[in-house]
């Protein structure tokens, strides 16, 4: 009896499988609806990845960060060898804790004299990689990573790379029409180009995205923070404005629809719901791409007109400051801790064995420095600081 009971237990543990029925695929090979972050209404959240990203999906922003870091380290080393003692100038000389004005001149900053008298046009391609100080670098790069990663994941590195470079160059062109005799850098211009691109992407694909209020709040917070930073010396706000307009127009031209990963065709059963939402989103994208060719065409024409106009104005040597006396306050707000004066600074120099005394002939300010063996460019920096 015991033997028969054990045999019956053995039979009860045998699972009978119907013929011709395949086991379900493993869960690791199934791309479910959550990977695409498609909501029940078929929309995509802006600040959330469309699918699980690979490291190579953000290679462009990583490369740009490395290039900016190399340029910043190079500028810092130039400042150290120029001054012979410090990597960053004190806040009284550079409120952004960065290099001196003469160092910025050496590494490629823009000045009116460089463009009009010396025609050093290579600075248009170098200036967008320069930062005015470590405060400027930290804020600018953090915002660029925050905005750029989402744009690159949504629209791909090729389109974002083209917009980034064109916006940076266009911002430098606009800067050349307003720049005065103080050195300025335009690295924030490329960031403003990305901000303009983000805004155009939201407007053009308004029906695709959800959480648009949070995206707009983040956009204008970054925009306002960096614009206020541009009111300090050595950062050009006109480059920021020009690059923002460029990014906005180019975004309407190039950012047709966000790219999402389509689901496999053989998904069925429990995953039909995900396929349905994916198909509805793809149809919506196709409809948007077909409905707005005129917007892209008009934006492209406007960008070409603005770019051509800036190039012609640059070749003619036009200085808009002659026609707009208040424009300088958009670029630099005078304050007791720094100077926005761009006029010629002349100082009387008196040297002793270990000290040098500078007296500004413009306002009478006098300051004693505990060194004498410095270059004329460095003397001009100190003279500009006290004037």
TrEMBL record:
Q: Where in the cell is it found?
A: Membrane
Q: Name one GO biological process term.
A: proteolysis
Give residue ranges for domain Peptidase S54 rhomboid. 122-255
Membrane association type: Multi-pass membrane protein
The keyword Lipid metabolism appears for this protein? no
Instruction: Identify the EC number(s).
Output: 3.4.21.105
Which reaction is catalysed here? Cleaves type-1 transmembrane domains using a catalytic dyad composed of serine and histidine that are contributed by different transmembrane domains
Q: What name goes with this protein?
A: RHOMBOID-like protein
């Amino acid at each position: 009896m015991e033997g028969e009971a054990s045999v019956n237990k053995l039979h009860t543990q045998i699972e009978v499988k119907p013929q011709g029925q395949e086991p379900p695929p493993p869960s690791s090979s199934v791309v479910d609806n959550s990977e695409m972050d498609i909501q029940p209404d078929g929309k995509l959240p802006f600040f959330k990845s469309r699918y699980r990203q690979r490291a190579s999906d953000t290679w462009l922003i990583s490369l740009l960060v490395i290039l900016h870091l190399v340029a910043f380290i190079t500028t810092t080393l130039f400042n150290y060898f120029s001054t012979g003692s410090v990597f960053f100038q004190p806040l009284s000389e550079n409120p952004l804790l960065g290099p001196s004005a003469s160092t910025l001149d050496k590494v490629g900053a823009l000045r009116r004299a460089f463009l009009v008298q010396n025609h050093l046009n290579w600075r248009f391609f170098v200036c967008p990689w320069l930062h005015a100080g470590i405060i400027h670098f930290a804020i600018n790069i953090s915002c660029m990573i925050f905005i750029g990663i989402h744009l690159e994941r949504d629209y791909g590195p090729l389109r974002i790379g083209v917009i980034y470079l064109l916006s940076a160059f266009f911002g430098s062109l606009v800067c050349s029409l307003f720049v005065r005799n103080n050195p300025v850098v335009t690295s924030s211009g490329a960031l403003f180009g990305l901000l303009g691109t983000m805004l155009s992407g939201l407007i053009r694909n308004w029906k695709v995205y959800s959480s648009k209020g949070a995206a707009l709040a983040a956009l204008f917070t970054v925009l306002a923070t960096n614009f206020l930073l541009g009111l300090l010396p050595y950062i050009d706000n006109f480059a920021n404005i020009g690059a923002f307009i460029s990014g906005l127009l180019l975004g309407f031209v190039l950012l047709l629809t966000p790219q999402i990963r389509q689901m496999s065709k053989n998904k069925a059963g429990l995953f039909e719901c995900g396929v349905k939402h994916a198909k509805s989103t793809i149809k919506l994208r196709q409809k948007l791409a077909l409905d707005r060719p005129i917007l892209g065409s008009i934006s492209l024409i406007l960008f070409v007109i603005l770019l051509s106009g800036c190039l012609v104005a640059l070749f003619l040597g036009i200085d808009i400051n002659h026609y707009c006396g208040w424009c300088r306050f958009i670029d630099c707000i005078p304050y007791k801790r720094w100077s926005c004066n761009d006029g010629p600074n002349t100082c009387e120099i008196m040297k002793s064995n270990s000290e040098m005394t500078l007296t500004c002939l413009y306002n009478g300010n006098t300051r004693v420095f505990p060194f004498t063996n410095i270059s004329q460019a460095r003397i001009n920096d100190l003279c500009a600081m006290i004037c």
